[in-house]
Amino acid sequence: MGFLEKSNDEVVGKVLSDFGDIIGVKEVVDGYMALVDSEVYKKTAFIGFVNEKDDYFDMDRFPLLKIAANNLTKFPLKLPFTPLFGIKDFYVTYSFIWNIWRCQLNRELTLDEGRSVFYNDLAVRIIFLLEYFDSSQNTPQVDEEFFRKLGKIKKLDKGAKKLSDRFLSLRTTLQVNAFGESPVTFGVNELGWTHFLAGCSAVHSGRNVIGMDDLVVGNKVYIKLVNTDLDSLIRSL
Questions:
Q1: How many domains does the chain have?
Q2: Can you give the residue range of the structural domain that contains 68?
Q3: How far is CA 159 from each of CA 2, 172, 176, 222, rounded to the nearest angstrom?
Q4: I need a surface site. Which of 29, 125, 127, 227 has the fewest CB within 10 A?
Q5: Is residue 53 predicted with pLDDT exceeding 60?
Q6: In whole angstroms, how large is the CA radius of gyration of the chain?
Q7: Please, where are the H alpha helices in 20-143?
Q8: pTM value > 0.85
Q9: 61 part of a folded domain
Q10: Does a structural domain hold residue 1?
């Protein structure tokens, strides 16, 4: 083990000693510990991410994107006191669905499957139902006010920032120790998307600042998505 490398037990212990009393943190830690044994997770970590643009879609068939694009900034930089989430953070939802699905299938998606990633209701269900995206609940209507509020979130509170750092250290350490490295782009996308999901949780809870509970929800949704049979779920929606 190199000078800067850490053991899994060390980073797990740090998360639990600082945040073990927060409901759901132990579940997230256990979830990430299990993911490093997942071939799907390993493949997803090293596969390239799709990068779609607005003009790829038929807006009339894709109201979710239209509303998101109208309310989330297109400014590419993250600056202090500016909105935390932009349209690119929204797009990463589809990148994770696409990549996890093709890694589960162990092949590239067909043209029709690729289209279904974007025109299927799974992204709507993830954003509006969070942990219950695979439940029997009806798919919610796309809500413009939700995205308006999401686009105004500018920060995580102090506890959430520290917990986010702990989760990031956990993911990075587990990946390095299991896979030999932690792909930088993948890590950035993981961090950004778990924050985006946490922002969705905050809006659903009536908050304009992301708290620790929201961050737990965001990470639980991500872990659950990796472990869900997306082929069966997407074809059932």
A1: 1
A2: 8-236
A3: 30, 20, 26, 20
A4: 227
A5: no
A6: 17
A7: 25-35, 39-46, 63-71, 87-105, 111-119, 122-129
A8: yes
A9: yes
A10: no
